[in-house]
């Protein structure tokens, strides 16, 4: 088994957690590894991987307090 399904599973969790519980949105953005990983996933070879990352980022951006951090990480 390759590492790819594991990475996709993590992205799917990052997509699902903020969608189910908005209180998770700030904690996810504060984690140093989450945002860079989601941003890298925007170049995933499968459409489902890209869509999962985009949806996760959308949920995170719905929290106003996260927007400055998101803008900073995106350059």
Provide the low-confidence segments as ranges.
none
Q: What is the 3D form?
A: globular
What is the alpha-carbon Rg in Å? 12 Å
- H-E order: HHHHH
Protein structure class: mainly alpha
Mean pLDDT: 84
Beta-strand percentage?
under 5%
Helical proportion? over 70%
Q: End-to-end distance, in Å? A: 34 Å
Protein name: Armadillo repeat-containing protein 1
InterPro entries: ARMC1 (IPR016617)
Keywords: Membrane
GO cellular component, one term: membrane
What does this protein look like?
With 75 residues, this protein is mostly helical. The chain has one domain. It is 72% helix and 0% strand. The chain contains 5 helices and no strands. Helix 1 packs parallel to helix 4. The longest helix has 17 residues. The protein is globular. The mean pLDDT is 84. It is found in: Membrane. It comes from Collichthys lucidus (Big head croaker).
Layout: helices, strands, pairs:
Layout: H1 4-20, H2 24-30, H3 34-40, H4 47-61, H5 67-74
Helix pairs in contact: 1-4
């Amino acid at each position: 088994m390759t590492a790819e399904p594991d990475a996709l599973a993590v992205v799917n969790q990052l997509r699902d957690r903020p969608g189910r519980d908005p209180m998770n949105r700030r904690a996810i953005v504060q984690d140093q590894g989450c945002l860079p990983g989601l941003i890298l996933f925007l170049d995933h070879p499968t459409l489902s991987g890209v869509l999962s990352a985009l949806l996760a980022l959308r949920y995170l951006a719905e929290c106003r307090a996260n927007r400055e951090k998101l803008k900073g990480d995106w350059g």
